[in-house]
Amino acid sequence: MKVAGIIVEYNPFHNGHVHHIKKTRELTGADFIVAVMSGDYVQRGMPAIMDKYLRCEMALSQGADLVLELPVAYSTASAESFAMGAVSLIDNLGVADSICFGSECGDIGLLSYLAGHLKEESPAFQEAIQRELSSGQPYPAARERAIASCRDLPGGLSPAEELTCDDLSALLSEPNNILALEYLKSLKRRSSSLTPITIKREGSGYHDLTVNKELASASSIRALYQSDDLSALDNLVPSSVLSILNREYQKRFPIFPNDFSICLYYRLLLEKDRNISLLQYQDVSSDMGKRIYNELDSFRCYEEFAKHIKTKQYTLTRINRSLLHILLNIKARDYQFYSQHDFTPYARVLGFRKDSSELLSAIKKNSSIPLITKLADAEKNLNTCGKKMIWQDILAANLYRKIQEEKFHTELPNEYTEGLRIVP
Question: Over the Cα atoms of the chain, what is R_g?
């Protein structure tokens, strides 16, 4: 039995994701595909546009055999922590042979070479990064400039060609390449036996808002959900996915960051009133915390406030993640604790295909972490780390559900009563 793991968000699901699933099966020869998917909040530091159960159902309808939830501590984290949480989950299942991810580059040799260099972070490289950070550059730009300034990078990159430092710096500016490098770094740090495979991204670019392409970006499709007309999605998503969208539109989705505005504002007011340092929250620096407090009177809505407090030093994504971590009470010390317990201490099932019983049996037999299919049974099967992590998941999901109920004037099952998605 061959099993391939993929790490996904599906925010939202579209034709490019169908391509990823199909190519994964083709390139790996996998009998089963396990998708580790972000829950109700994603790595951009935002709530997902639709809840995890809808996105799980879409993934299963398009060829994924099993969907596991990436805990919220990792789904909202930096690329490095996001990757380590997801890779460790797949690795600990004990059944996967490979991991397949997209990239703009499409060259696994080049990506592996660069990942090895970044994993080691030579003294010269660390010094270059600190120099760029001290000049006020945000971390992604600082890393790009540090790469360009290191003279030991060119050479041995590819049998066919040598790339310049500028080429490598440009590679680091692409979002899927960045995640690909982090997946590879995580595999190397774990000495994992998983075989990494990359698929070259096709169609629109990550931030491209053009919608007249069959392989449109998630960004462009999210923009469409702000209108009341889903007809523009006809050529952008599979028909079964469109059916789910039409069934649940204005009943469970779309959800936007500004739907959380009052919750975030109250949380920030409460922290300021109690004179609590925001530095305790993941991704919040001392300077950022002071700016959040100083500008709180300017709060109008979630997205506007994030843009308002943005400075050259921090990307908007970093700001969004910081605000989300404050809202969800995710602290820096949590990550330190989780890293001491092999990062992801359980695999929570969101859904599976009916014909994947062999896969589930193999995981139960070989996994080094509990497979959670019923939340009510989780506590007795989890260690202290697992209990803390899954409680964060439950609190975050309950907040998301209440936002849905308030916005769409409906009543939805809670985390204990929402059933697994099982697709024929």
Answer: 21
Determine the Cα–Cα distance for residues 117 and 129; give it in Å rounded to an integer. 14
The DSSP line for 297-334 is GG--SHHHHHHHH--TTS-HHHHHHHHHHHHHT-BHHH
77: left (phi over 0), alpha (psi -120 to 50) or beta: beta
Name the pLDDT band for 275 (thresholds 50, 70, 90).
confident
Q: In this structure, is the dihedral angle defined by the CA atoms of residues 217, 41, 58 and 66, taken in order, positive or negative?
A: positive
pLDDT in tens, 304-333: 999 999 998 899 999 999 999 999 999 999
Which residues are CB-contacts of 306 (< 8 A; sequence separation ≥ 6)?
A: 257, 316, 319, 320, 323
* Per-residue tokens: 37: 């998917």
Identify residue 227 by its one-letter amino acid code: S
User: What pTM was computed for the model?
Assistant: 0.92
> Cα separation of 356 and 365, whole Å?
15
Residue 413: exposure state from Cβ atoms within 10 A (0-12, 13-18, ≥19)? exposed
DSSP letters, 248-293, are HBTTTB---GGGGHHHHHHHHHHHHHTT--GGGBTT--HHHHHHHH
- List residues bridging with 33 in a β-sheet: 4
In order of 20, 99, 396, 418, the CA distances from 375 in angstroms are: 30, 27, 15, 10
- The one-letter code for the residue type at 339 is S
Nearest Cα to Cα of residue 110 among 28, 194, 196, 192: 196
CA dist., res. 79 & res. 177, Å (int): 11
Q: Quickly list DSSP for 145-201.
A: HHHHH-TT-SSSS-SS----HHHHHHHTTSHHHHHHHHHHHHHHHHT--PEEEEEE-
**Phi-psi group of 329: left, alpha or beta (phi > 0 → left; psi -120 to 50 → alpha; rest → beta):** left
- Which tokens hold the place of 69? 């939830």
What percent of the chain is modeled with pLDDT above 70? 91
Of residues 132, 136, 76, the one with CA closest to residue 281: 76
Cis before residue 12, ω within 30 degrees of 0? yes
Strand pairing report for 66-70 and 347-353: antiparallel
| Contact criterion met (CB below 8 Å) for 325 and 282 | yes
DSSP annotation string for 191-223: T--PEEEEEE--SS-TT----SSTT--HHHHHH
> Which amino acid appears at position 293 of this protein?
Y
